[in-house]
Design goal:
By secondary structure, this protein is mainly alpha-helical. It contains 13 helices and no strands. The two termini are 36 Å apart.
Length: 364
Amino acid sequence: MGSLSSLKGKLVLLKGTLEKLVEIIFAIIVGFVIAGLMMYMGGFDPIKAYAAMFETSLSLTDPYYIAMTLSFATPVMLTALTFAIGVRAGLFNIGAEGQMYMGALGAVIVASWTLPGPLYLPLAFIVGSLLAAAWGLIAGLLKVLRGVNEVVSTIMLNWIAFWIVEYARVYVYPNPIDASKTISMPPPGRLPLLIRGTELSVSFIIAIITVFIVYYLLWHMVLGYEIRATGLNPTAARYGGINPKKTMLWAFIIGGIAAGLAGVSEITGRPPSYAITTGLSNLFGYGFDGIAVSLIGANHPLGIIPAAIFIGALSAGSRGMQTTAGVPLEMVKAVQGIIVWALAMPGLIRLIRRRMIRRRGVEL
C-alpha cells in the first residue's frame, strides 16, 4: 500500500514537471515570435538576428561565447536565490539589487585594507555577505516588528543602497588613477579565470555550489522545512510550533547572503575592472533580472540554474545581434524584455494566485 501511494506521488510530481516544461517551451515560442514580429516591423531580419544571438552565446565552436554566457548567468543565479527563498517563506523580497550593491561595497572595503595576500578573498566574501545580509535584515525587521510591506521597504532600500554605494565610490574609495571606478581588488584577491581571455571565473562554480546548498537547506533541513511551511500557511505553521516571524527573518538573512555573494563575485571575479564603476553600471540590474530568473525557474533552486543560463545567453548574444545583424541596442533590449516577460509571466501569475489564496486563508 505504501509503495502504491509512493508511486502515485511520483507520477503526480512527474506530471507537474512535464506540465511546467511544456509551459516554458510554449512561453519561449510566444516570446520569440512576438519579439521577432517587432523586429520585422522595425525593418530588421529576425531570423538573422536570432541566428547571431545564439551563435554568439551558445556556439560550441568557440568556448569564448559559452564562457560569456555563463559569466552573465553567475550573478543572476545568485540574486534569483534571494527572490526564491523569499517566495518559499511567503515573502515578495525584491531587495536583491540593493543587497548585491552592499555586497560589492563590502568587497571594495576589504580591497582598501592592507592585508596579506591570502586574506583578501575570504575576507571579501565574509564582509560582503554580512553587509548584504544586514541590509536584507532591515527589511525583515520592518516586516515582522512593524508590519511594513516588504515590497515597499525593499524598493526603498534598493535606492538607498544605490546612493550609499555611489557616494562611497566617488568620495570614500575613489581610484586615484581612474575616476570612473573605485579602487580595484588587488591581484591576490581576484578569483581565477576558468577560461583565459574571458570573464568567466571561479565565481560560476561558487554560484552553482550556493544553489545546491540552498536546495539542501530548503528541502533537507529543519530550517528549510520551517521556511516552506511558513510560506504555505503561517497560521498552520504557528500551530505546528514554528515561529513565522523568526523564519521570515532567516529568509531575509539567507537571501541577503546570496545577493551579497553576487556583489562580491562581480568585484573579485569579473575582469577587467575588479571594482565598482560609474553609476554602478557593472552591477545595475542583476538583482531585478534575478526576479525573472527565479520566476522562470519556478522559484526552485535547481530550476534557477537553467533559467539563469538562458538569461545569460540572451545577455551574451545581444552583442552578436548588434554587430552581425545590425540590430540597434534599444531594439535588442526590447527583444530581451519581451522574451523574459513571456517566460516569467506564467510563474508570476501562479505566484500572485498563490498569495491571494494564502491571504484569503489568513483572513478566514
